[in-house]
Amino acid sequence: MDTDQTPPGTPTSDRPRGLNGCAVAVVVLTGLVILAAWALAEFEKGFDGYGQLEQSGPSGYVADPLGPGATARYEDGLKVTVSRPRPEPDGSYSLTVTYENDTDEELRPGGESSDAGASEYGPAPLVVRAGKSLDDHASGYSVTWLNRREAAAALVPPLGTEKKRTVPVRVKPSVKGIPITVEVDPPTAGFRETAYFQFSLD
């Protein structure tokens, strides 16, 4: 009586093992692609400098300033928001500049000294001046920064990581309805772009 038996040493099918190998290769390849994309993004940031503005909408550059209530976002995690101006009974306007430190290091928004931390003309870490962002100087009107010294002093203390600081600003225009520009240029050991905000004191 004949019975069919598999002769000893006959290889079994390699198909399941081959499929498993392909699946592992695909997973590893996908992981390598994701890792390479992340490394490239980090390299680009390091090459450009972490002090670059990273905006959607207006760029925040001098020719494309942000508006009131907007936030300037830097690649290293620093965020600066300038509020909408609020009219006061005496004809002045109040606004705030808020610094939010989501970087991995302590920052000094106003530099080492309050003497150079704020200005109505520039350059300084915080400038509040009359005119549009592209104007070298305003003609026919002006703005007086009523609490400049106090604002500059508030900028000097170190701002730790994951901390926030709001600096009150009070200005008085020579005439109602003029444009003003707020320039924010927090000092850093490396490179940081200046963020521009422009709006009218209506």
Structural class: alpha+beta
How many strand units?
Answer: 10
Beta-strand percent range: 25-35%
Overall form = elongated
CATH homologous superfamily annotation of the largest domain: Immunoglobulins
Share of helix, binned: 10-25%
Which fold does the CATH topology of the largest domain refer to? Immunoglobulin-like
The helix-strand sequence is HEEEEEEEHEEE
CATH architecture of the largest domain: Sandwich
Oligomer state of the chains in this structure: single chain
Main beta-sheet strand count, sense and barrel state: 6 strands, antiparallel
Description:
The chain is α+β, with helices and mostly antiparallel strands and 202 residues long. It is built from two helices and ten strands. It has helices at 15-48, 148-155; strands at 71-73, 78-82, 86-87, 93-101, 118-119, 126-130, 143-145, 163-173, 179-184, 195-200. The strands form two sheets. Strands 1, 2, 3, 4, 7 and 8 form a six-stranded antiparallel β-sheet that branches. Strands 5-6-9-10 form a four-stranded mixed β-sheet, covered by helices on one side. The chain is elongated and about 85 Å long. The N and C termini lie far apart (108 Å).
SSE blueprint and pairings:
Elements: H1 15-48, E1 71-73, E2 78-82, E3 86-87, E4 93-101, E5 118-119, E6 126-130, E7 143-145, H2 148-155, E8 163-173, E9 179-184, E10 195-200
Parallel strand pairs: 5-6
Antiparallel strand pairs: 1-2, 2-4, 3-4, 4-8, 6-9, 7-8, 9-10
